[in-house]
Amino acid sequence: MLFKTSARFYFYELNEEGQERQRMRSIANVDVSADNQAITDLANVYEALTNDLYHLVEKQETSLLAR
Asked: Residue limits of the DUF1659 domain (predicted)?
């Protein structure tokens, strides 16, 4: 049984020394019925809001095996 879904969006930014480093934005409690296109659409919304450019979008699904 699918228990929960979350998304991670990875992007690069420059630190104080001007070096590029990878950062991650994590979105918890995404609708468990969300398909890959819905996660991609969510990433596009966050890109527009934050002016970040996500080079990797990850969908994480947690399943409940036994109780």
From this structure: 4-65
Whole-model pTM: value is: 0.83
Judge contact between 54 and 63, C-beta under 8 A.
no
Q: How far is CA 15 from CA 12, 19, 43, 45, in A?
A: 10, 6, 23, 24
Enter the tokens of residue 41. Answer: 């659409």
CA distances, 22 to each of 10, 30, 43, 44 (Å): 7, 23, 16, 18
Give the C-alpha separation, 11 to 47, whole Å: 10
Give yes or no for a contact between 13 and 21, defined as CB atoms under 8 angstroms apart: yes
